[in-house]
Structures are given as C-alpha cells and as structure tokens.
Design goal:
The N and C termini lie close together (7 Å). The strands form 2 sheets. Strands 1, 2, 3, 4, 5, 6, 7 and 12 form an 8-stranded mixed beta sheet that branches. By secondary structure, this protein is of the alpha+beta class. It has 2 domains: 189 residues, 2-Layer Sandwich (Ribosomal Protein S5, domain 2), CATH 3.30.230; 138 residues, GHMP kinase, C-terminal domain (Alpha-Beta Plaits, 2-Layer Sandwich). α3 packs across α5.
C-alpha cells in the first residue's frame, strides 16, 4: 500500500507572536494567516520487513532502522512515537519520504506544516480518528511538547484547516479557528499587490522566540506593549481584508513590522534592511518578514502598476521573488 499526503504552507499576515506562550496564556492571542500554494509532502509505503526506511529530503536524512528505533529525522520519529503511544498501534514496516517546497527556517511554517503532513499520512494509513482540530492540536503537542521545538500555535492550525483564517489563542490552550469568507476579487487584488521575496538566507527562530518569551515573562513594558499592538493588528487587518482596503492592509502590515522589531534584536539585520530599502525606493508601500524574523521570506505590499519595477530592483540582490497564490484547502491524504 502507498499513502500520500500534502499540507499547505502559510503566510503570517498579522498577529504572529501573540500565539506564543507565555503571552497567549497571559493575554490571549489573535492571528490572521493564509495558506499558499507551497506545500509539505509525505509518502508512506508499506514494507514486509520490520524496519522504518526514511528519506527525509527536507532534513537531509536517509536511514533504515528497526521499528521503534530513532532514525535521526526528529519530526518523523516524533510523529511515529506519539501514534504508537496514543493509539496503541504498532504499524508494520514502512518506507517514508518527506520533502518541502520551501527550505526550513523560511518563515512559512515549514517544520510545523511537515508535522501536520506526516501525521495526516499516518492517520490515513492507520484510520486514526483525527478531525482538523485534533490533527492540529496533536501536531502542536508533538512538535512543541514532545520534541521541545520552540514556536507558537498558528502554523499547525493553518496547515490543518487551510484558507484564510482569523485565529484566537486563549488561556488553557483553547484555540478557535474562524475561517474568513474573503471575496475572490479581494484575494486576487491582494495577490497582485503583494510580493513574496526570499532573502536567500534561512533562519532558525529559536533564539528570537526565546527573547520574545523572556520579554513577556520579565514584563518588559516596551516589548509587551508592542505585542499588544501586534495582537490588535490582526483584528484591524481582518476588517481591512474583508473590505478589500489594500491601503489600510498595507499600513497595518508596515506598522506591525515596526512593532515586531521591538520584540527581539535579531528580528531584523542589514540584509533584511537592504531588501526593504531597495523595495521601497522602487515603489513598495510596506512590508514585513514572515515568521519569527531574521531571514526567510518577506511580504512586500506594492501598487500593482509598480510591481515589475520592484521585482526588477530586488533582482539585483541575492534573493529572489517567488510567485504564489492563496489556497483554500488544508491538509489532505489519499491511498493508492
């Protein structure tokens, strides 16, 4: 038997960081995000031998180990261990292949999306009773609690549900996903008004997230107030998006970026600032880095008439503009 799955990556439009503990535990968080046509992929093929054969292209790991033995591909190992623990199932031998349309540390939620994708593949193979909320919650627990990887909660829910969502992160780990019915013409206008620029440098946000968490724990006034405004920006941007007001959307995006830079010193750097300066000089209106910051992808708002001017200016730098479209579908799996 062969089972495959895919799960979409996301753009963190507003509110990112307010979904990270302890802020979300103390104050609650709001996030607006949207999935795009870049994905994580997983294939499981059953084997007769009692082994796990791993080809994790996203992690650069190939291995064959006895069932129940860590392979070194921690996301796969984490999902396998939790499935065995929670559902009392000991799957037979299998080969598993994973890969991603974007590099790790790109700010599009690649690691969390991959966990959702792997778990969705196991659920399809083994018939596990996981709806969208259960899929996202269990993926969060595997990544953040079992494996101890730093981050928030939005990525798992974006990958599981898909589409444009306004998410509420409440104390006691309560998560409410509100799918938004954004008119097609508004999404088309947003696509043509936004550039997705890969800086060419991946970053791993654990240190940035740790600084953000410490600022909240210590009650650092400037940082906490900045996060309050970032949280509010998700509410404000939701309204602008539903009304199709791209000017307001761009203004909110830019203001949230200024606040985000107050959360940790490594969120921006000379490479990111050069890209911003280059884009703005060519006609961009505003922008922000997707994800924790420090590198990865940048979202830039432009007047559609000046889109090609901004692309031409950015082409002189070391990164690249990546075409994208918004998508409505969350994680899916199927058998062959």
């Amino acid at each position: 038997m062969i089972v495959r799955s895919k799960a979409p990556l996301r753009l963190g439009l507003a509110g990112g960081g307010s979904d990270v503990s302890p802020y979300s535990d103390l104050y609650g968080g709001n996030v607006l995000n949207a999935t795009i046509n870049l994905s994580a992929y997983c294939t499981i093929e059953t084997l007769d031998a009692p082994v796990m054969r791993v080809n994790s292209a996203d992690a650069g790991i190939r291995a064959e180990v006895p069932l129940g033995t860590p392979s070194g591909a921690i996301l796969i190992d984490g999902v396998y261990a939790r499935v065995v623990k929670d559902f009392g199932l000991v799957p037979g031998g299998f080969a598993i292949t994973t890969y991603n349309d974007a590099p790790a540390g790109s700010g599009l939620g690649t690691s969390s999306t991959m966990v959702v994708c792997i778990l969705k593949c196991f659920a399809e193979w083994l018939g596990l009773p996981l709806g969208d909320y259960e899929l996202a919650r269990l993926s969060f627990e595997i990544e953040r609690l079992d494996l101890g990887l730093a981050g928030g909660k939005q990525d798992q829910y974006a990958a599981a549900f898909g589409g444009v969502n306004f998410m509420e992160f409440l104390p006691s780990d309560v998560v409410i996903v509100n799918p938004l019915r954004v008119k097609d013409w508004i999404l088309h206008e947003l696509e043509i008004s936004m550039l997705l620029y890969f800086t060419g440098r991946s970053r791993f946000g654990a240190d940035i997230i740790a600084q953000q968490q410490e600022a909240t724990r210590s009650g650092a006034v400037q940082a906490v107030q900045a996060m309050h405004r970032i949280k509010q920006s998700a509410v404000d941007m939701k309204l602008a998006l539903l009304q199709g007001d791209m000017r307001a959307f761009a203004r909110i995006l830019g203001a949230a970026w200024e606040d985000k830079k107050k959360m940790a010193t490594a969120i921006t750097n000379p490479m990111i600032q050069e890209a911003f300066d280059t884009a703005m000089a060519a006609g961009a209106i505003s922008g922000k880095v997707s994800g924790a910051g420090g590198g990865g992808f940048m979202m830039l708002m432009v007047e559609p008439q000046k889109r090609m001017d901004v692309i031409a200016a950015l082409s002189r730098l070391s990164g690249k503009v990546v075409p994208f479209q918004f998508t409505h579908e969350g994680a899916v799996a199927w058998k062959l």
